[in-house]
Design brief:
Elements: H1 3-19, E1 23-30, H2 40-50, E2 54-57, H3 77-88, E3 93-96, H4 102-109, H5 114-127, H6 133-144, H7 146-152, H8 163-179, H9 181-184, H10 189-192, E4 194-196, E5 202-204, H11 205-232, E6 238-244, H12 248-258, E7 264-267
Parallel strand pairs: 1-6, 1-7, 2-3, 2-6
Antiparallel strand pairs: 4-5
Helix pairs in contact: 2-3, 5-11, 6-8, 7-8, 11-12
Length: 272
């Protein structure tokens, strides 16, 4: 290749890398239902401050038309605020990033409603004082971890969108899906109580609860991959991800791994 041409191509490549606009991902943990400290008006104002190119919803494709307009879910904070925003700022795009068919999947594999049945059974054993000392310690810790989150969720959005709250959410979910299984895997009650799945097969509370924990990981990992795919298809754009704030820690953790070495930055909505 001509030396001059090679130098020119190299220079153009370097210049292109230097001028490529950075993609921004802003993950906002939300409360789905209106509260005095967080409602659709507050979320709409946050969106106006950010001015996103894309708003990603914690929904799957069934909630959208073929041109990515809402078909339903317009009663939540996220639904009302994002719909209002795209109507006012028509250049903004909506996209789903949820695990496809989440609820049907959980019902079909038997993780739901066995997850709820399992925690109710643990609670009844606790109230009857039938848990061992170590089991009671696990369950009481699990319940106690919810209290600070309730307090934080009653404050301004910055209070449940930060690393400290993320770490409490992570510990609480660890106790829910990892530590509680120390109880369900040991006690016979969870082996001998069954739920019948839609296909007629029976599944024990023990097995159903394990599947629920496995799905928590699968769901969040899938959502992060979907977010990443959308981001890579839209280089240089500002992308807002709306999620229930209990998911935020997991999604951010996965995105930090997936964005490593790429021209993508993760920001908080209150960072300028």
């Amino acid at each position: 290749m001509n030396k001059t041409l090679l130098i020119l191509l190299t220079s153009l490549t370097i210049l292109s890398c230097k001028t490529e606009k950075t993609t921004e991902i802003i993950v906002i943990g939300t409360l789905h239902k209106p509260e005095p400290n967080f409602n659709d008006e507050i979320l709409f104002k946050i969106l106006e401050d950010i001015k996103p190119d894309y708003i990603l919803r914690e929904l799957d494709s069934s909630s959208f038309t073929s041109d990515f307009r809402h078909k339903n879910d317009l009663n939540s904070n996220e639904g009302i605020a994002s719909e209002k925003y795209v109507q006012k700022y028509s250049g903004t795009h909506l996209r789903p990033y949820e695990f496809e068919g989440r609820n049907e999947y959980r019902i079909n594999i038997g993780s739901r409603p066995t997850d709820g049945f399992t925690t109710k059974l643990i609670d009844s054993l606790s109230k009857a004082d039938l848990l061992s000392v170590s089991e009671a310690g696990i369950y009481n810790k699990y319940k106690a971890l919810l209290e600070p989150l309730i307090i934080l969720a009653s404050k301004s959005p910055e209070n449940f969108n930060n690393a400290t709250t993320d770490s409490i959410c992570e510990e609480r979910q660890y106790y829910q899906y990892k530590m509680l299984t120390k109880i369900t895997n040991k006690r016979n009650e969870f082996k001998t109580h069954f739920h019948t799945k839609p296909n007629g097969e029976k599944i024990s509370y023990r097995d159903g609860y394990k599947l629920a924990g496995d799905f928590w990981d699968l769901r969040n990992q899938t959502m992060a991959k979907n977010i990443m795919q959308i981001s890579q298809q839209n280089h240089g754009k500002k992308i807002v991800v709306l999620c229930g704030f209990m998911h935020r820690y997991y999604i951010l953790s996965e995105l930090k791994k997936l964005t490593k070495g790429k021209n993508i930055v993760l920001k908080e909505f209150y960072e300028k």
